[in-house]
C-alpha cells in the first residue's frame, strides 16, 4: 500500500426517505416504505468506503457541536476514519441533506451552510503521517474554497513529497457550472465525475468530446455512466466497462463509492483498468443498500469481489 489519504470536503448527515410511491408534489403527501439516518456528504461517504477498503483515511471538514455532529463523529470513527482534524463549532448546525428516493430517480434537499463557509483557514496542514494522496469532494458546494484550491495544493506539496490529488465536483446546486474550475484542473491528477457533470463542465454535447477535452488537461479522467458503466482515459489510453447486475435499493453515494474504489486501486499502484473494475464493484454494491456508507455485509461482499479480480 502506498500511503494514507486525506479528504478535504463536505460532511453532513443524510436523511434518506426511500421507496416513495410517487414523486412529491406541492400541497400533497406521499408515502415511503423506508427511511434511514446516515453519514452524508461526498467527503464523508468517500472517507468511510476508502477506510473500509483498508486505506488509512483522514477527513477535514466542519460540523456543529450538536446531535447530528455527535452522530457523525461516532459513525466515522466506527468505520476507522481519523476525525481529529474535523472542526466542531459551538452554536452551529451540522449540515443535513434530505434524499427522497423513488423508482425512477431521486430528489435531494440540502441545508449545508457550514460546508459552504468552510475555507482555507479551517484546514490543518500539519500532523499527518505518510499522506500520499488528497481527495477534494464537492467542488461546487465548497464556496469558501473555490478561490484557494491551487494555494491549498501548493501548501500540501511543500509539506508532503510525491503526493497526488483527486477531485469529484458532484453537482452544482447553482446550476451555473462556472469555468473557474479550469484553473484548478491542471493541478489535479485524477478527475472523477459523472456524465451530467462532464457535459456541463465541458459544455460539450456528447461524452466522447467531453472526455477528450478533459484528458488534455488532467492525466486521469474517469466518467461514471451509471447503468452504462464507465469510460476513462489515462495517459492517452481509453478504458470502458459496463455496469454490474444489482438489486437496486438507493443510489445515494454510489459515485463516491466508485471514487473510493478507484483511489484504493490507485494507491495500491494497480493499473487503471483494475482500479476501474474495483470502483465499479464499489459503486454497484452501494446501490443495493440504503445510504452511501452501507453495512458490514456490503463491505464483506466488496472484499470478496475484489479478491476474485485480483
The CATH class name reads: Alpha Beta
> What share of residues is helical?
25-40%
Shape: globular
In CATH, the homologous superfamily goes by the name Ribokinase
Q: How many individual helices?
A: 10
Tell me the Rg in angstroms. Answer: 18 Å
Q: Widest sheet: strand order?
A: 4-1-9-10-11-12-13-14
Tell me the distance between the termini: 15 Å
What does this structure look like?
With about 300 residues, this protein is an alpha/beta fold. The chain contains ten helices and 14 strands. Helix 1 crosses helix 8, helix 8 runs antiparallel to helix 9 and helix 9 packs antiparallel against helix 10. It is globular, with a radius of gyration of 18 Å. It starts with a strand and ends with a helix. The model has no long low-confidence stretch (mean pLDDT about 95).
List keywords for this structure.
four-stranded mixed beta sheet, eight-stranded mixed beta sheet, alpha/beta, 10 helices, globular, single chain, UDP-N-acetylmuramoyl-L-alanine:D-glutamate ligase, 310 residues
In short, what is this structure?
The protein is α/β, with parallel strands linked by helices and 310 residues long.
Q: Which helices and strands appear, and what pairs or packs with what?
A:
Blueprint: E1 4-8, E2 12-20, E3 32-40, H1 42-53, E4 57-60, E5 62-64, H2 67-78, E6 87-89, E7 96-102, E8 106-111, H3 113-116, E9 131-137, H4 149-159, E10 164-168, H5 181-184, E11 190-194, H6 195-202, H7 207-215, E12 220-224, E13 230-234, E14 237-241, H8 254-267, H9 272-286, H10 296-309
Parallel strand pairs: 1-4, 1-9, 2-7, 5-6, 9-10, 10-11, 11-12
Antiparallel strand pairs: 2-3, 7-8, 12-13, 13-14
Helix pairs in contact: 1-8, 6-7, 8-9, 9-10
Amino acid at each position: 500500500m502506498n500511503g494514507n489519504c486525506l479528504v478535504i470536503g463536505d460532511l453532513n448527515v443524510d436523511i434518506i426517505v426511500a421507496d416513495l410511491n410517487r414523486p412529491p408534489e406541492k400541497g400533497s403527501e406521499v408515502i415511503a416504505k423506508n427511511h434511514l439516518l446516515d453519514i452524508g456528504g461526498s467527503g464523508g461517504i468517500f472517507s468511510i468506503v476508502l477506510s473500509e477498503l483498508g486505506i488509512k483515511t483522514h477527513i477535514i471538514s466542519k460540523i456543529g457541536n450538536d446531535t447530528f455532529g455527535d452522530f457523525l463523529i461516532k459513525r466515522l470513527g466506527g468505520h476507522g476514519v481519523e476525525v481529529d482534524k474535523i472542526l466542531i463549532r459551538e452554536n452551529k448546525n451540522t449540515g443535513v441533506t434530505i434524499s427522497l428516493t423513488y423508482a425512477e430517480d431521486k430528489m435531494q434537499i440540502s441545508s449545508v451552510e457550514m460546508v459552504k463557509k468552510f475555507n482555507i483557514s479551517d484546514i490543518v496542514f500539519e500532523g499527518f503521517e505518510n499522506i500520499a494522496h488528497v481527495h477534494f469532494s464537492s467542488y461546487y458546494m465548497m464556496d469558501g474554497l473555490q478561490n484557494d484550491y491551487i494555494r491549498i495544493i501548493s501548501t500540501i506539496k511543500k509539506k508532503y513529497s510525491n503526493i497526488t490529488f483527486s477531485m469529484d465536483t458532484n453537482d452544482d446546486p447553482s446550476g451555473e457550472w462556472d469555468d473557474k474550475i479550469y484553473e484548478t484542473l491542471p493541478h489535479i491528477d485524477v478527475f472523477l465525475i459523472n456524465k451530467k457533470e462532464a457535459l456541463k463542465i465541458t459544455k460539450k454535447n456528447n461524452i466522447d468530446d467531453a472526455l477528450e477535452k478533459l484528458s488534455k488537461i488532467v492525466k486521469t479522467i474517469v466518467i461514471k455512466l451509471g447503468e452504462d458503466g464507465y469510460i476513462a482515459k489515462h495517459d492517452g489510453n481509453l478504458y470502458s466497462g459496463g455496469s454490474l447486475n444489482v438489486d437496486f435499493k438507493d443510489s445515494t453515494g454510489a459515485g463516491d463509492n466508485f471514487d473510493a474504489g478507484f483511489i484504493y486501486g490507485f494507491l495500491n499502484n494497480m493499473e487503471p483498468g483494475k482500479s476501474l473494475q474495483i470502483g465499479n464493484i464499489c459503486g454497484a454494491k452501494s446501490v443495493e443498500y440504503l445510504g452511501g456508507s452501507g453495512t458490514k455485509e456490503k463491505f464483506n461482499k466488496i472484499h470478496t469481489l475484489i479478491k476474485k479480480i485480483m
